[in-house]
Amino acid sequence: MADVIRFDNFNVQYASVKEEIDAAVRRVLESGWFILGKEVEAFEREFAHYIGCRYCVGVASGTDAIALSLMALDIGSGDEVITTDMTAFPTIAGIMQAGALPGVVDISPDDGLIDPDRIEAKITKHTKAIVPVHLYGQSCDMDPICEIARKHHLKIVEDCAQSVGATYKERKTGGIGDVNAFSFYPTKNLGAYGDAGAVTTNDEATYNKLLQLRNYGQRTRYYHDTFGINSRLDEMQAAVLRVKLKYLEQWTLQRRQHAAYYQEHLNSVTCLKENSYGVPVYHLFVIKTSRRDRMLEYLKSNGIQCLIHYPVPIHRQKAFPTHNDQDHNVYPNTERFADEIFSIPIYPELTGEQQERIVEAINRMS
Ligand SMILES: *Cc1c(COP(=O)(O)O)cnc(C)c1O
Fold this sequence. Notes:
Number of helices: 11
Structural class: alpha+beta
Bound molecules: pyridoxal-5'-phosphate
Strand order of the largest sheet: 3-2-4-5
Oligomer: single chain
Shape: globular
Number of strands: 15
Order of helices and strands: HHEHEHEEHEEEEEHEEHHEEEHHEH
Radius of gyration: 21 Å
């Protein structure tokens, strides 16, 4: 049988930038400085510039980035935060880590993103923020979401874990909301070699608060003015991310080319809609079919690894705090979506030959 096509393949990417990565890691080892030093400062500057916003604060993970964003906005215990019913659970974990209560909204079935028209019905007098998730690498429709936030005096924390580099009307995601969260988990489009994340903002006071929040409330060494946690991006990961950031646009272009190939050649499954208001970065390539489970079996037996993002809507997760109170019928779109979707490999280094094999297998099965 032909080689297995893995869903992700970190080895080929490492091989392509090995010399630069090895040199960056050696530079940190030989510097003898590992926490909050030159590499983190340089990465924060370079990443803020890339996103097109004024400030960036490196943190330990994407989940922490969401929690710290809310904490910086003084959102926590007793407050409610609205997000989408179709996301990676860490979106919810981050909201709960800040002490707030998450509420979820149904999606638009065509693109899998939060349906802005359903947000207002979820707002209560305790609601303080909306966390739009730019799922699969495509921006949410931000104008109506920002309009609702303005009208109800809510903050916006963009979850950009899957959307680094994606745009909404010429602006990059992560530069639109009040405080915004990124993940550099290894599978993400900009992946570290371990856990890592970042928060972006244009507000100087929020930026200064974040610097303390991620470093046990420390203003200068041994002087603690406020509560804070330990959630720092380390020098080694920052050095790795600085190398990879230089290649991100090129890797994104390859992902977009793979997506265009799939959209052109897949003929019996539904590809998610690409909205004309922005340019997505295809963190994942998600397709829908009513025969999902049979198709997954077939692809697996043909050596093609696929995954489901995500098989269980948030409101059905046992850890979702209000799940017992929810009427399942209020999320008809996520219910159906979760039963029909699966993701096929789309990492930048995927070859034309591999893509052909994937498309042929899917079309043959249909
Ligand atoms: C990966 C991810 C996160 C969390 O990131 P970690 O770095 O793993 O904590 C949050 N939200 C979404 C949508 C994600 O995909």
